[in-house]
From TrEMBL:
GO terms for molecular function: zinc ion binding. The lineage of its organism: Bacteria, Pseudomonadati, Spirochaetota, Spirochaetia, Spirochaetales. Keywords: Metal-binding, Zinc, Zinc-finger. A zinc finger (dksA C4-type) spans 85-109. This is TraR/DksA family transcriptional regulator. Residues 80-115 form the Zinc finger DksA/TraR C4-type domain. It comes from Oceanispirochaeta crateris. Pfam families: zf-dskA_traR. Transmembrane segments: none annotated.
Amino acid sequence: MEKEFQDKMRTTLLEIKEQVLRNLISENEDFKAAVEDLGVKDLADIASNDIDVRTLEALSSQETLRLNKVESALIRLENGKYGVCARCTKKIAKDRLEAIPYAVLCIECKSDSEKRKN
């Protein structure tokens, strides 16, 4: 893989990482506020806040997973394994990497994986 493309993807991954970290910080502040609001006595408010807390927990979990994927992609960039399918070891298409910079499977293996899930 060309150095220019690797540099471009490194920059993209670092930008995604920064955005995810911002999201997690923001969600954490929202989460704290939602938990503090649970002191409200109105049952409707408590139920509403409980839903908000669960929603924030789910979002935070998704963002944490995304952050882990980005970190793994950055490590693969450093050790020369970025852009290589983890299943078949073929090169992952540049178009796929540009769309999903932290992709670990080529489109064929990802498609096969999705079919097996269903």
